[in-house]
Amino acid sequence: MQERLKELRKMAEAKIKSAHDLETLKELKIKFLGKKGELTSVLRGMGSLSPEERPVVGALANEIRNRLEELISSKEGELEEAKLEQKLKEETIDVTLPSVSFPMGAIHPLQAVIEELEDIFIGMGFEIAEGPEVETDKFNFEMLNFLKDHPARDMQDSFYITPEILLRTHTSSVQARTMLAKKGEVPVRIICPGKVYRRDSDDATHSHQFMQIEGLVVDRNISMSELKGVLFTFIKKIFGEDTEVRLRPSFFPFTEPSVEVDIYDPKKGWLEILGAGMVHPRVLEKSGYNPERYTGFAFGAGIERIAMLKYGIDDIRHFYNNDLRFLRQFQSE
Fold first, then answer.
1. I need a labelling partner for 174 at 20 to 30 A (CA). Which of 142, 229, 255, 328 fits?
2. CA distances from residue 218 to 71, 139, 226, 294 in whole angstroms, order as listed
3. Which intervals hold domain Aminoacyl-transfer RNA synthetases class-II family profile (predicted)?
């Protein structure tokens, strides 16, 4: 039996050393060391050996098993390393070849303007406030001093869902919600950027959906001069320090006195960009603020209008047509 074991070891070692791939090596391991392998088959005949021979044959069998396992493990490592080297050789990348160019995205011009405005107003101590786009008549109109027969409440001007629910026509509703949530606490210093909706015919300067940014400040001793300072600061930061600005008297239900704000364009003359004014005492009172103690100012501007003037865009529909030729103009180098 010892001779048979030695022959088995010699044959197994030769086959293992000559194995050329991992699959062959796996088959050899099963063939020689598996439960039904050749080494096990030889050892099944130990029952016929004398008590003196069994320990000798058992020790030899264990020695052969250990030797073959070490040989298989060593060969497995060699084959895996060779396989990896071959794979690396096949997958070698020539770094001198021209690279593939991937198209890069860009921030939408409206989003770029919003982020710029937010940076400017945050720098002046404002916070960003948000509110629902599906709004109630109470916050969209009533809280802002729009009387029941005001033209803005007309079904032909707003998108009503029910008689008391509509798509908000301005982000001023966020101002009313914020003041109520503050429960009379001051200061209130917020801006409210967001989408608004009005029933309008789409053309180069009008859209049924557009974006506004509105601002609100409420505190003790707030004056018109502070409103003027905030407006002039943000306009000059957006359009340039040399921008000429003027204020004209106007009317809004939620501010008194009210003004329209224009900037001067050398090619087009004076252009209106926003409306503003001192918060109407009734609006303060409805929102839980004593108008005898607190005052405030508010303003609102169309983000598309600012973007069109800033970038020289002549048609508001470009912002919503998803034309890549238009959007690529705002792509960073």
1. 229
2. 85, 18, 11, 7
3. 111-329
Q: How many Cβ atoms from other residues are within 10 Å of residue 328's Cβ?
A: 12
Residue 150 DSSP SS3: coil
Structural tokens at position 120: 């400017």
CATH architecture of the region 109-330: 2-Layer Sandwich (3.30)
Instruction: Give dist(CA 126, CA 54) in Å, integer.
Output: 93
Q: How far apart are CA 143 and CA 253, in angstroms?
A: 11
Question: Does residue 115 have a known ligand-binding role?
Answer: no
**The two structure tokens encoding residue 66:** 């250990």
259 HSE (CA, 13 A, CB side): 17
> Whole-angstrom Cα distance, residue 8 to residue 120?
86
How far, CA to CA in Å, does 90 sit from each of 78, 94, 273? Answer: 18, 11, 63
Q: Please, are residues 173 and 254 in contact by the beta-carbon 8 Å criterion? A: no
pLDDT tens digit sequence for 110-127: 999 999 999 999 999 999
Summarize the chain as % helix, strand, coil (round to 5). Answer: 45, 20, 30
